[in-house]
Amino acid sequence: MVNRIDRWAPAAGLISPPFYLALIIVLGALEPGFSHRTSLMSLLGGVGGILGLAFNLGVVVTGVCLIVFAAGLRQQLPPGWRDNAATLLLTIGGSGLIGAGAFACDQGCRNILIDPDLVGRLHIVSSLSAGMGSGVALFFYWAAMSRSEQWRSFVKPTLTAAVLANLPGVVLWFTIFADLRLRSVEGYLQRMGFIVVLLWIFFAANRMRRTSE
């Protein structure tokens, strides 16, 4: 099992970032009126037909990849509460993506933004779990890597990524819950933090691949 995880985890980490970015770029381009600057990504899941289905399935696949990556990276870090917390949080992040894809928006995300129902609320909880879990996990990876000679050179980039990944999300959700929404840049705020997480995963997975060769 460990050998399988060691083999599949780097692949999951290398594939998921470009896959997810291509997913939102292509489907966003195909949806009339969709703006990466102002539109939340969840809106793509409420598109009717095959495009909405493709987005939601893609989000689920990305979540599965994050969980596999977290399991593999755990094998390379010193055992302890820091590593356990990081693995748990990134697994929560991946599970949140799976939930966000399973409990998707309806058309225009009315079940979230206008007339919230159970599915919409579950989508919000899942999305929060995805963003917060994956973002906060980087702080614990930073702490765990500080104790590893193998990952010592990755410590500063991880701390930088942790800060950059969490700031946009804090601003986004604070303004939403405080009814001070920054609608003109909400799309950017939502994407920025998660893109940082994905970039970190990509480079960490590449390092895992090199060390396992």
TrEMBL record:
The keyword Iron-sulfur does not apply. The keyword DNA-binding does not apply. The chain crosses the membrane at residues 12-30, 50-73, 85-104, 124-142, 154-176, 188-205. InterPro entries: DUF998. Keywords: Membrane, Transmembrane, Transmembrane helix. This is DUF998 domain-containing protein. It comes from marine sediment metagenome.
